[in-house]
Amino acid sequence: MKKSVNDILLLFLLSVLCLTQKIACLTDTLTATQSIKDGETIISAGGSFELGFFSPSMSTNRYVGIWYKKISIPTVVWVANREVPLTSTSGVLEVIKPGLLVLRNDTNNTIWSSNSSTSVPNPVVQLLETGNLVVKDANQEDPEMFLWQSFDYPTDTFLPGMKLGHNFVTGLEVYISSWKSFEDPAPGKYTYHCDPTGYPQNFVKMGSSLQFRTGPWNGLGFSGVPSLQRNPIFSYEVVMNSKEVYYTYKLLGLTSTRFTLSPTGVGQRWTWDNQTGSWIIYLSAPNDNCDSYGLCGAYGGCDTDNSQICGCLDKFSPKYPDKWANRDWSNGCIRNVALDCQSGDGFTKYSGFKLPDTHNSSYNTNTSLEECRRICLKNCSCTAYSTLDISSGSGCLFWFGDLIDMKVISAAGQDIYIRMASSESDSNGKKGKKLVISLTLSLAMVLLALSLVLLLQRRKKKRAKQQKEEMQGHILSMAYTDEHHKDLELPLFELSRIIKATDKFSFNNKLGEGGFGPVYKGLLGEGQEVAVKRLSEHSMQGLDEFKNEAICIAKLQHRNLVKLLGCCIEGKEKILIYEYMPNKSLDFFIFDETRRTSLDWPMRFHIIQGIARGLLYLHQDSRLRIIHRDLKAGNILLDADMNPKISDFGTARSFGGNETGANTSRVVGTHGYMSPEYAVDGLFSIKSDVFSFGVLLIEIVSGKRNRGFLNQGHQFNLLGHAWKLYKEERALELVDLHLGNSYNSSEVLRSIHVGLLCVQQCPEDRPDMSSVIFMLGNEGQLPEAKQPGFFMERNLVAAKNSSSTQASSSKGAGKETKERFRRGKKNIVK
Ligand SMILES: *[C@@H]1O[C@H](CO)[C@@H](O)[C@H](O)[C@H]1NC(C)=O
Ligand SMILES: *[C@@H]1O[C@H](CO)[C@@H](O)[C@H](O)[C@H]1NC(C)=O
Ligand SMILES: *[C@@H]1O[C@H](CO)[C@@H](O)[C@H](O)[C@H]1NC(C)=O
Ligand SMILES: *[C@@H]1O[C@H](CO)[C@@H](O)[C@H](O)[C@H]1NC(C)=O
Ligand SMILES: *[C@@H]1O[C@H](CO)[C@@H](O)[C@H](O)[C@H]1NC(C)=O
Ligand SMILES: *[C@@H]1O[C@H](CO)[C@@H](O)[C@H](O)[C@H]1NC(C)=O
Ligand SMILES: *[C@@H]1O[C@H](CO)[C@@H](O)[C@H](O)[C@H]1NC(C)=O
């Protein structure tokens, strides 16, 4: 789509031709006597969209598609022949009587065609200003009379004005389907639907399996997507009547916006930022682990704030306590007291939830909540009810059967009234009930869980209060200039409180040394344990990292990222306050002779997968899109349940919509984890993080450090050693001896293989994190791993010695210290 001089010449020639020949030029319409060839396009009347031939990046196949005309980044919104690419530039698109749009290849075979059963005397094809390509009779303007329109057959993009849903008259369902990959527009595994069964809600599906549910439409938005709110860019609604049910949205201003479903099944809402010339992700879903459909089973509730993310609703208990304790939540929970409809049931109110799946629901409008209750009570199979439309507060939604896929959304969740045996119900509408974390093991664990719940509740109350007070006072003065920083809600803590919590930063409370200063354990007044990271006074570089970390992590939220609770900026003190991680960091376990024995394979695999998910979120699904740049065992923290959480964002970099990396003269990171192109040339990208992840993975499997690994037989480092074993089909010899034989060898082999794919020399060869997660979780053939980068300790040492200035490393024995060094590229590349 780039214009070269030749193209411009061609365009000029074409416009001359237009005058003399019957060829469509600079117009939005093709008539039955006209056609367009590869290289020619038609443009919508207002110049917003263009239709023509294109190749996806990294592909030479030709497709007919529609893209934004005014937007500088090539953005394809629709593809005609997505399943049958043209292999040359000889395709021709034309309109034929009585009303078909057809694409032919050079042997005149039809590659793709629109379809319609009606015929008209004078068919034309027109690209409308909305991006809708329509086949119609020349003088027909009524959309009802169009023979065919691309809006009925969208690909991966949901544009303003499209109707996502069902037309009961024609039987047509309009839904979005992902591309197979970023290079291949053929239909991929994922689809996005508006499902009217029971009561409308949208789903992301993989094949026929449900992956993510938006929750039912509640009049204002979707119950499970609280971040979709009224905004100046677009308005949205669900339309329901006897003829059709659909979800649609329209533009309010001039800013372009689109919704896409990525090849990895993530729904993303993009808006165009005219200032920076890039697409910005405004919303994305699924967004956290609790968004995975039905994770906690029937009557389970998912809460990302809990370390054990699934809990049973209050007054319910795990159906199979053993499985539940082993994190298999699929069987869900059952009632503590069985229902007895005949002798009169009641209801209990649960607040702050994404409403359960409405597949088996019914609804009525115009009823009050009291009437809803009466109606539900009368029907023994009605298990719950709630308000239908929260904007007007009227109508009822009734559930029949089990309640599935509930998630705690404290701030914007909804109320639901669940049927209970009379002894359990709070007939007079007492205070709302929450989740109970159900652990069935020792009393100690029950106590632990209880104190956790208390802590969380207190923290939430406290946070809300603090935010109110503090937002009026001092706002962080750190460079929050663009409009996306409005949503930064970082509570400020008073210095006196931190000093008290850490006992004046006492040495006894020191946990270690972080990227830019010491880290202390603190105990807030309410008994809440926190980790306090204090910026060293004389660290200039530290200040940048401090700001960077505060900005980055305040905007990130994922189960596998450490959570920032607040910060403190007073005088010279700059402090960040985090959730406390009782199990310290991963290096504390895997490299320690005794502690590593407590990490069995399932736990190690769980940790590997968690890190991968956290990293995927950073790279792809978070709003900032972040390259961490210093991923290592010491930066993976472990919570009470040994869930991994990525920490230390001091050197992380955010990157824009389309770029995937950059170049720096200041290389920061840790030896042994740095990819060759980054350590040597200062090139960092998501693929340099993938490299570090691969190193980490192999360290977790082997229980050995990459750095300083010695083997009698050869000069390789751990990566080289692993690769050697893998080539000789002896990869299992890499496994940490402490694991004994108690591991699933196919899982282990697969992990090693994936680790080696991640550390390949060429960044292009390394998979991205979504593929990593897929490969770890699924059987199937993996590509052959090529030689790893930095597979001998020597080549790293060589690179290191030639650097001009460099900080010294290794302080305490066994402690991982961050090394930074600064150097010009020329010193290295000879
Ligand atoms: C293809 O169709 C065009 C126009 O209809 C015709 O001129 C050409 O000869 C045909 N080519 C072949 C190989 O049939
Ligand atoms: C044209 O399409 C037909 C049918 O798909 C195919 O068999 C043929 O090989 C194609 N011709 C070229 C030159 O690609
Ligand atoms: C058009 O094609 C689609 C899929 O290719 C099919 O589902 C639909 O029924 C067809 N419509 C008509 C009118 O033939
Ligand atoms: C976007 O920026 C371009 C120039 O950079 C300007 O011509 C255009 O009017 C702007 N569009 C909007 C919607 O602001
Ligand atoms: C709806 O009801 C059917 C039949 O009882 C059941 O098989 C299905 O799992 C239910 N679906 C949901 C989402 O509750
Ligand atoms: C709902 O109630 C309002 C006022 O009470 C009435 O005007 C409206 O017609 C009712 N709608 C339905 C669908 O019953
Ligand atoms: C209860 O509701 C279900 C679903 O709407 C309906 O099929 C059933 O007939 C109702 N039962 C009674 C007793 O009203």
Could you characterize the architecture of this molecule?
The structure is a single chain. By secondary structure, this protein is an alpha+beta fold. It has five domains: 1-153, Bulb-type lectin domain (Agglutinin, subunit A); 156-287, Orthogonal Prism (Agglutinin, subunit A); 295-443, no CATH class; 481-579, Phosphorylase Kinase, domain 1 (2-Layer Sandwich); 586-826, Orthogonal Bundle (Transferase(Phosphotransferase), domain 1), CATH 1.10.510. Helices cover 21% and strands 28% of the residues. The protein contains 14 helices and 49 strands. The strands form 13 sheets. It has a nine-stranded mixed β-sheet, covered by helices on one side. Helix 8 (601-621) runs antiparallel to helix 13 and helix 10 (686-702) packs antiparallel against helix 12. The longest helix has 30 residues, at 443-472. The chain is globular and about 85 Å long. The chain starts with a helix and ends in an 8-residue tail after the last strand. Residues 1-5, 7-24, 428-433, 437-454, 464-488 and 794-830 have low confidence and may be disordered. The structure holds 2-acetamido-2-deoxy-beta-D-glucopyranose (7 copies). One 2-acetamido-2-deoxy-beta-D-glucopyranose is lined by residues 254, 274. One 2-acetamido-2-deoxy-beta-D-glucopyranose is lined by residues 365-366.
